[in-house]
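From the shared-data thread, chain only:
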Amino acid sequence: MAIFKIGKVVLGSLFKKPATLMYPVVPRQWQERTRGHISIVEADCILCGICVKRCPTHAITVDKPGRTWTIERMDCVQCGSCAENCPKKCLTMEQQYSAPNTVKTVDVHHIPAPAAAEKKAAPAAPGSKLECDLETCIYCGICAKNCPSDALFVDRKEKVWKVDHDACTQCGICVEKCPKDSLSFK
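Structure, as tokens:
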């Protein structure tokens, strides 16, 4: 009896397509929501450190003085939180998995210094602080709405503009978005 069942399966599979792909010859088709590994566009990174704060496993480290962005691949759980919260959108979740390895891999990316045209949005010095020219400020609140670290508070009625210097990551987004150019790093 068992021979007839096996024979039926063998004859049925002779006339069907194979259930598996010939992997090296036929490349794999990735689904749209496949989570593979995090990649970075080094030229767009401003070393703000928001990805470090949002990473639940602390797999990412940012060294501002050394201008390096580092990720420990074995600690990363591919949640994509860093890519979602990146203010410059320089982090992306790739669909390809990282290559298998027998040792822990740490990817170190050296971030180039900003060009002269981009220095308007970037702080002039590592210890600089965000300041507002209250004479030209219209208290619109666009800077506070665009701040990824919620370091700004603007009250239009009371004409109050405050910054929490401890929470400010000096990413420069508020300076870019200010319609009156009243924000700067000093």
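DSSP finds five helices and nine strands in the chain.
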